Amino acid sequence: MIVEVEAYARLHMGLFELGQHFGRRWGGVGVSIKQPSLRVTVNTESSEQVEGIDSEEAENVVTLLCRSLGKKFKGGIKVQSGIPVHRGFGSRTQLRLALATAICKAMDVEFQVHRIAEVLGIGEVSSVGTHLFANGGLVVQLPRQANRTGLGSFIRLEFPEDWWFVVAYPGDVMGLDEQQERRLFATLPPQEPLTCMEISHLILGCLLPTLLERDLTGFGECLSILQRLVGQYFASVQGGVFRMAEAVQLLRMAGAKGVGQSSWGPAVYGLFGDRLEAENAVFEVRKHLGDNWNVYATTAVNHGARVSVRP
Question: What contacts 45, CB < 8 A, 6 or more positions away?
Fold first, then answer.
């Protein structure tokens, strides 16, 4: 049996409820995008080896999963394409979930994505990527009780596939890994109650309604405000509201309706109304940033990871 799983990167649009008010914390917003993506293949008939990129991470997933299931996996694993690591795309979450999904399918083991996430230690802070792996679209992770773990509740909406993102990130700069992130969160004070209220109001009163109404301008303006408020909270540990402020400004100048930084970056993005606008922006932004930067246009994905099975 051959099982193939394709999963997609996500753009993180911001965390909220970082003050543990009402005894809750860790809300977040994110959207699945077509590029970059990853593909993993599991073949139960091939030799027991792990090939391709991220092979060490793949071996760790196999070990954790088989220990939890009490079973031994026999077969080959190949990571055929991957999402750049520690650039703000949620690569580790997507890779781990894709591998675990493929292995469970190959072993004919019933599984649920939230259970896999718990076994693999995914979603300690943000579970946006896990919800997007399963569902695609735009997800709002609702704050969960501070003394509870797990994925918690979420809202999922379709994202217009005729809206375009221009994504930019440098080839030689990385974001934070999980241990660095954990240490930084431990140093940050609780977010001010008024700021938490403003962000929550912004999401409920503007971001979600404008998305449902397909109001590109309104959604973009709301996204930019959300990103500014979230970025101000993290400015002391990431060097400003945006790590790559020049790239964000170039996206604005190229006509982006809204701008943001995905997670800890360095990836930043702008929102555009159609493909032509996005492609023109790619040209302008790339011209100023140079060859060391990856700049491209992509759209949202409104479905979860794709799974295919062949005998």
Answer: 1, 2, 75
